[in-house]
Amino acid sequence: MSDKDTTHFGFKEVDKDAKAGMVGDVFHSVAARYDLMNDLMSGGIHRIWKRFTIELSGVRKNNAVLDIAGGTGDLAARFAELVGPQGRVVLADINDSMLQVGRDKLLDQGRLANIEFVQADAQYLPFPDDSFDCVTIAFGLRNVTDIDLALRSILRVLKPGGRLLVLEFSKPRNSLLSKAYDTYSFRVLPLMGRLVANDSDSYQYLAESIRKHPDQDTLKDMMEDAGYCEVEYHDMTGGIVALHRGIKA
Amino acid sequence: MSAPVDPTLHTAALAALETAINRALALSPHSKAELAQLEDAVFALHCTAPVLDLYLHPGAQGMRLTGFHQGPITTSIRGKAADFAELASAKDPTATLINGGLELEGDSAPLIELQHILAKLDMDWEAPLVDSLGDVAGHQLAQVLRSAFAWGKQASTSLARQLEEFIHEEARLSPPRLEVEDFYRDVQELGIRVDRLESRTERLRQRLQKLRG
């Protein structure tokens, strides 16, 4: 994968160098209505998925946590409470529009004492080795140009014993659910995107990028190949979403 | 490798329960301050029927409920849902822990403290009602609710007392508490006397053996 010059952008094949910019355009476009669309598209279930991610993260007082592709700061806000005033939470996103929306939201909530905001690419994280007890990436990995590179970059910044949690859309286990999900993704989502955010193309990309993302077992293998140990995953909502967890030895 | 049960439902149920508990705690002004004293404690509840694992994390912000926990646990309790319900409503949680069907590991003192805090939730209905209905209507509705709760509590205490009297005195279905305690004391004393007698007999036997030898 990494030695090819092209990669996928939804169902399209594009130059590797172009993907980050194209994904960036999608998120510049949806940033303002990101939270509203998430609630509408998932019926609010994304909050439950994120809550389970926080439970499995095992984050405690005084921990250092990096939330990559942190978007509008749902996970970072909760982590900031859990780590306490002596802890550290870094909300990172490659997209400055998303980061700005997230920063404004968290500052409005009065959460600023232990949260830092960093514009960063998951493939080339600008942090020293062994910096974090936990790294999370929720609904962001599929937008990364080179997933292997990102997994290795995250491994580098994790402390030994630190955990990576990847919350991402995956493959439904049940064929009936899978068909219903396809209909929803390719018919309802772009329509909803057009009506609410006036942007059907971005939501068409969302549906396509989910289908191109590695399934549960493939991502687990990729994490093991990158050097994570004790890799496990939990299917959620019939496999529509999966939460992978790996530990740095 | 995947969890056998879809965690979405489990997590959603915990989120709903946590919200309900924290709403109740928000109406009870002293409870949060008391819970803050248990800030670093983690209580593991392992329910065997129905099968459910639950972790309670009390703190100054209220109660956090999780389905997973990795790290030290202050108190771990295992038992059936009915046993947990009995403990939650027990007047004397120590006796319930000793005599009930719950298995306990770890420190019982923080658990008893938590039970006390939750059992004596003193809800102030007036503040949220006044916020949403205004001073006059809110105050009046709060009075009605307070009276209704006070009456309910009084009625329940009175019913429990009458039922206890009927079971112990009228129907003689079970001996009164004092009689049972007397009986236990007698049994304990008898046990001590038997031990003494056994030691004395043993001493006499040894003396007799010496005289024969």
Describe the structure.
The complex is a heterodimer of chains A (249) and B (213). Chain A has 249 residues and is of the alpha/beta class. Chain A has one domain: 3-Layer(aba) Sandwich (Rossmann fold), CATH 3.40.50.150. Chain A has helices spanning 16-30, 34-42, 45-57, 74-83, 96-108, 147-157, 175-196, 200-212, 216-226; strands at residues 6-9, 12-15, 64-68, 88-93, 115-119, 132-138, 158-169, 228-236, 241-248. In chain A, the strands form two sheets. Chain A has a seven-stranded mixed beta sheet with strand order 5-4-3-6-7-9-8, with helices on both faces. In chain A, strands 1-2 form a two-stranded antiparallel sheet. In chain A, helix 3 (45-57) runs parallel beside helix 4 (74-83) and helix 7 (175-196) runs antiparallel to helix 8. The longest helix of chain A is centred in the last third of the chain and has 22 residues, at 175-196. Chain A starts with 5 loop residues before the first strand and ends with a strand. Chain B is α+β, with helices and mostly antiparallel strands and 213 residues long. Chain B has helices spanning 7-26, 29-36, 81-89, 93-99, 108-119, 126-133, 135-170, 177-212, and strands at 43-48, 51-59, 62-66, 75-79, 103-106. In chain B, helix 6 packs antiparallel against helix 7 (135-170). Chain B is extended. The interface between A and B is medium-sized, with 22 and 16 residues.
